[in-house]
Design brief:
Largest sheet: 4 strands, antiparallel
Structural class: alpha+beta
Distance between the termini: 32 Å
Strand content: 15-25%
Number of strands: 6
Number of domains: 1
Number of helices: 4
Shape: elongated
């Protein structure tokens, strides 16, 4: 976000682009999707380029243009169960892998489903 409150748009390399270019790239699913995994524990992990809009909401710091989210694999209850944002595609790929590992753990999954929502199992 710029100091005047307007958004900046960036391609996957982090280069500033126009809003129109971001919209065009955002229509390309293969460009937008960075990673997708359906886990045996019943979760989906999805990592995407956020259409180029820096949603960091910070005036200083790296633009956050990638996001990993975790959802239930069978059906959409409207909730995301975990979320991380990243500045680079490299960070996003590493973050996706870390989230897959985290949500693939059967013990962590069982504890989560029993109501233990603490992130102490990493």
């Amino acid at each position: 976000m710029k100091a005047d409150g307007s958004f900046t748009y960036r391609n996957k390399k982090g280069e500033e682009i126009s809003r129109e270019e971001a919209a065009r790239l955002g229509e390309d699913r293969s460009y937008k999707q960075v990673g997708f995994s359906k886990l045996k524990t019943g979760w989906k992990v999805s990592t995407v380029w956020l259409g180029g809009m820096d949603i960091s909401m910070k005036l200083n710091g790296e633009p956050q243009i990638f996001e990993t989210m975790v959802f239930k694999a069978n059906g959409n209850d409207g909730h995301d169960y975990d979320c991380r944002r990243y500045a680079t595609e490299e960070e996003a790929l590493a973050g996706h892998a870390a989230m897959v590992t985290k949500w693939s753990d059967p013990l962590r999954d069982a504890l989560y489903r029993l109501g233990d929502r603490e992130d102490t199992y990493e």
